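Q: Here's a chain of 379 amino acids. Please give me its 3D structure as tokens.
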Amino acid sequence: MIITGESALRENARAVVEQLAGDAGRFVVATAGPQLEAILAGRGSGAAALSKKENLRVLNLDVGGGTTNGVLFVGGEVEATVCAHVGGRLVRIDPTSARVVGVSPPAREAAGILGLRVDVGQPADPEQLWTLCTGMTQALHELIEGRADSDLARALVIGSPPSSPIRADVVTFSGGTGRELYASTERRSLRDVIRYGDIGPMLADALRLGPTCQAFALREPPETVYATVIGAGMEVLELSGSTIFLHADGLLPLQNVPMVKPPNLDPLAPADRIAASVREGLSWFTSEGQGLDQPVAVTFPGLHHPRFDQVRNLAAGLAEGVRPLVERGLPVIIVLEENIGSVLGHSLSTFLPPDYPIICIDQIRSQTGDYIDIGAPMY
């Protein structure tokens, strides 16, 4: 079970899913921050596979009820993410009376910035709602361009915008509102919009006619509405092995540990750049305004026949990058492709507090969205 979207922002999200896990038995338990949700949806929609198969830069925007979570894939790998409070159920409308019955805080703030009145109980004004939707899509595109210059973009952004503009060949949409984008080629009437009880179809129209679809070629992915669910279930890796550096008395076995492949991590880069990449990857597992509440394994290829100074530099960068885990008392878990688990683990231990729990496994290929089980030593 993975909690996503607005549910993941609730204070009791982790407690609820752990209670369900205890009742239902052994299965994946995790809360996904918006960046991780973007990656899961991008893989489930088929955008990652499209970028790899056709050698394209593919931006997938997963537009749900409360948020839009975007991810850029290049050759099947994550290059950037962008997330915002832009969703189809930010304003809810009664289909019978055509009156507004719910306005979420982000929509209320956006309406205020745009000089609109969207209040509970008032008749749904199609022009005001259209202005709200187009304003949100323009703010979203501003974030895609790596900036938050306007008040509206700053109000809607989740986390930080990308460090540089997202350059894509193709844009795809998933999620419930994303599906509606492909359902029509013209702007729909208010009657057609409110039959769903929200502004989802109107937001879809605004996105289809807006700057993002003008900037990038629009493609429809194989999956839309169930993209996050499919992405979460695509890759599950279970492992118990002996090629392991272990400094974690009583910690094993561990089950269902989510994995992150930090974006653009170059193990030969200066330590501060390695740290920044790791911190960005770990941030995908945090909900807005909250820290990490679960172990996360950091995975990357590693170094082939490295020199000792290169291992030390990599360890120094990793130690600084995993500080969000250390601050929460969570174990440091490193999963590598290259056969350097033991030497890297020993080196990493010198940069962390004495006796800090470290697990370093090698000769495993994995990616963001995978999960790993680590068995207890057999000797």
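Q: Can you summarize the key feature?
A: The first strand starts at residue 2 and ends at 3.
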